[in-house]
Amino acid sequence: MYFYADILGGDGMGFIRANIVPILEESKRRPFKGRLLLLGQGDIYFSDDAYRQMAQRVGVNLDSSVQPALSYKPDFAEKGYLDTQSVFRRLGFSEVMALDYSDFEGADILHDMNAPDIPEQWRGQFDVVMDHGTLEHIFHFPNAMHAVFQFLKIGGRAMTSSPVSGFFDHGFYMMQPTLFRDFYAANAWEVNTIKVVQFTSNEWTDPCTFIDYEPDRLDPSKYGKMDGNFCATFCVATKGEQSTGKVIPQQGWYSRQAAWKPCSAVQASMADPM
User: InterPro entries of this UniProt entry (predicted)?
Assistant: First the structure.
């Protein structure tokens, strides 16, 4: 467990300190390159100074050949907030694209993630698919995860940042860490990291805490004992040669109970009509 108490963050949804710091850490673990697909356009809620400070703290060198640029939104630019393209190109990506159901923010790919499949032309085209708070707004979560699988190349990474608690009526779902761990385990992905992120509504000054997730580790804090903070799940998983995107997981907690056994007569696949 560790926390950042002295790095300025943001004041809204999109890319804030709570999810950009673990992205920087993943960049340090395995440097980024190639094509990035963002699920949603993704506003940036920090300045260039804050970005440099966070990168320096993590130990990541930003690409100096890419010039920082301000957001295309006037109110964001007035605050000194950066645009998405320059933020991620400075991390090594050669191309940054955004997907959305609507073109209201100029998305590059228009697609409904509730659909059972993605267009053929986009299959296996991306090195990283990054969700910064979109999956919880998609009703058909299984199809959305299958879409992530389809968009990625073999060896590509899915990076998700999703709310766990404290976001009343924000989306359809709150995404628990076990959801991602169990989905990726059932579908033969390599899970690189899962973190529980705690932060407050005053992210400018209050600490942001990152806890490495392990099953049952946070059991004492399960029921009403998270100190009223916002909580989110940050996860990175790598798609392998044998990975799939449609196997329905059973929650891992049950499989860890000695007396629990699945019924051999019951089999399910996300490919089945729902």
Answer: SAM-dependent_MTases_sf (IPR029063)
